[in-house]
Design a protein that fits this description.
about 220 residues; four-stranded antiparallel beta sheet; alpha+beta; homodimer; globular; NADH Oxidase; 5 strands
Chain lengths: ~220, ~220
């Protein structure tokens, strides 16, 4: 397995930033988008539970409806793509069963081989309060968010992570509760406008000594 | 700006997996590790608040002490590196002030230019309950987790994301509360052992139709 030159990987991370103004004339090519979706699918999660669904909102009318619930941030309508990262509601033993069934199918083994794994998952999911499980699962969605942003950067695709939106309104407009999901974070993706002032701002990070501590 | 061939980026994501058994004889070279730390520093966060610290535990004695609080998972001591992703406790207005001061310094502007931004942050941080702010900040740490895992994969470095550990014990052993942090998730990194059975298992993901929905 090859990998990428480390300096070039860092260059891509430095190149990325939270795009404020997208080039409205540029769309992410379909074949590139399919690969970004694949990155989302490949995201790791606790126990491999994948307690999420990624809603890709291409409908322009719906994006216009979401705009006023997004602090008016134009990326919602101007970006090539909008992804709403949603967490599965009420994750419980049935989800462990579903994952084990899928694992057995993918690996060509009998589900009973995975009984220990299944029982461990069910224990973790039922030992804690529903609120705790909900937050535990929500955190997983943020791993996928990090995977998405990093992968996009590696692919040379711009993105903007966004938490400034009214989740309850997104849920209602997209009908997520009826589907069993709740919106937790969003990302817009596409290509930066040549005149996006944010593109040239120096990236602000605290000093390494404040962020990393070696023990 | 160049970027990487999309198929090769996906290859790296498929290559990665949660390493069960690390090669104890292989260390991540210092120059590569510095770049992975840089990726952590570059991770995006809500408002750019960076409400985190990443504790890199190199002390073998401490790692032995952490092992019994990690469900006995040998990666804790066998991996080349162990990172404890911690969230800053009690994030509030002072953190907004600190970020604005740092932004002004990095960008060579007067802090007052950023008053609107500062007041927006302070509003968000004080309008909500401390519990809500704590969880909001904790979620950010998971973005950094996703960035770390993805960047490691791009660099050809193996890793294992781990939530199976007793955070309170980690906090105590590492003295995190006194430093103003709490452990939320960990990652071990290094190189897979040639006989790690997990390396050859088929990756289990639900069908695309269950994970992605286009609207």
């Amino acid at each position: 397995m090859t990998s990428f030159p480390h300096d070039e990987v860092l260059d891509q991370l430095r190149w990325r930033y939270a795009v404020k103004k997208f080039d409205t004339s540029r769309k992410i090519p379909a074949d590139a988008w399919v690969k970004l979706e694949e990155a989302l699918i490949l995201s790791p999660s606790s126990y491999g539970l994948q307690p999420w669904k990624f809603f890709v909102v291409n409908d322009r009318g719906i994006r216009e409806k979401l705009l006023p619930h997004s602090w008016g941030q134009r990326q919602i309508v101007d970006a090539s793509h909008l992804v709403v990262f949603a967490v599965k509601a009420d994750v419980g033993p049935a989800d462990a069963e579903r994952l084990v069934a899928r694992s057995a199918e993918v690996r060509g083994i009998h589900p009973s081989v995975l009984d220990t794994y299944k029982n461990m998952m069910i224990g973790s999911l039922t030992r804690q309060t529903p609120e705790h499980v909900r937050e535990w699962m929500t955190r997983q969605v943020f791993i996928a968010h990090g995977v998405f942003l990093t992968t996009a950067a590696m692919m040379g695709i711009d993105a903007c992570p966004m938490e400034g939106f009214v989740a309850a309104q997104y849920d209602e407009i997209l009908g997520l509760p009826a589907k069993g999901y709740r919106a937790v974070v969003i990302a817009t993706a596409g290509y930066r406008a040549v005149d996006d002032a944010n593109a040239t701002l120096a990236k602000v990070r605290f000093r390494k000594s404040e962020i990393i501590e070696t023990i």
